[in-house]
Amino acid sequence: MKRSTFPCIVYSNFVILFLLLSATSIAKDFTEEEGDVDIKRSDFPDGFLFGASTSSYQIEGAYLEDGKGLSNWDVFCRIEGIEPFVTIHHFDYPQELEDRYGSWLSTLMQDDFVHFAETCFNNFGDHVKYWSSINVPNLFGILGFEIGTFPPARCSSPFGNCRHGNSDIKPLFAVHNMLLAHAKAAKLYRTKFKANIDYHLAYEKLRIALRNLHRCSINKEV
Q1: Domain, as residue range, for 174
Q2: Is residue 49 in a domain?
Q3: CB–CB of 142/171 below 8 Å?
Q4: Which GO terms describe its molecular function (predicted)?
């Protein structure tokens, strides 16, 4: 005897309806709760800077160049008067530098980074006065050169399973070169561009990286 599927259909529809109603209720409560939050500029101390972080591939630059039209962000940033904070190196760089000399494992990367930084200062210095040199170099050293979950994916057992790398020492080489590249870029900025551009190069990330690098060295010696 063929069994009826009607009870199953009714039950399934009931579950779907229940989930939809629950989701609607949660969204409504969340919206109402968020609407009760009243944040004013006066709630924060003088000198507190508000900002948002993004990457070059999330916001297109060079508006109106090579036939490019305005993007919604091009218009929005100019209408709202948003002050840009530019990070010169955010995990990505030309693959050519990796293939040629191993990117941050080589001292050659320092001078190439400074050249790139100078290019940015020359071309965007009249629009940008807040610069950060290298995004979280300590984290990049771990992800790219110790556990290999970020490019260039260099690591060794037991930290990761990569084709190439040495997780014991290569992260130290990479972060060491990042620190020196930062120092050279900062010196260039001070001596050549500071007179024309307000100087606000970020140091906090590099200070943390240096502290973690020191701790890492102590742990490996132990």
Answers
A1: 84-222
A2: no
A3: yes
A4: beta-glucosidase activity
Give the model's pLDDT for residue 67.
Answer: 73
Q: What is the pLDDT of residue 187?
A: 92
Chain centre distance of CA 117:
17
**Is residue 172 in some structural domain?**
yes
CB 88 within 8 A of CB 118: no
Question: Is 43 within a domain?
Answer: no
Strand partners, 85: 130
> Mean pLDDT over residues 23-40, rounded?
59
Here the tokens at position 115 are 């050249």
CA distance 29 to 23: 10
Nearest to 182 by CA among 77, 104, 126, 81: 104
- The reply to whether the predicted model has a pTM over 0.70 is no
How wide is the angle at C-alpha 136 spanned by C-alphas 131 and 137, nearest 5°?
Answer: 105
Q: What angle do CA 221, 98, 93 make, to 5 degrees?
A: 100
Q: What is the pLDDT of residue 120?
A: 94
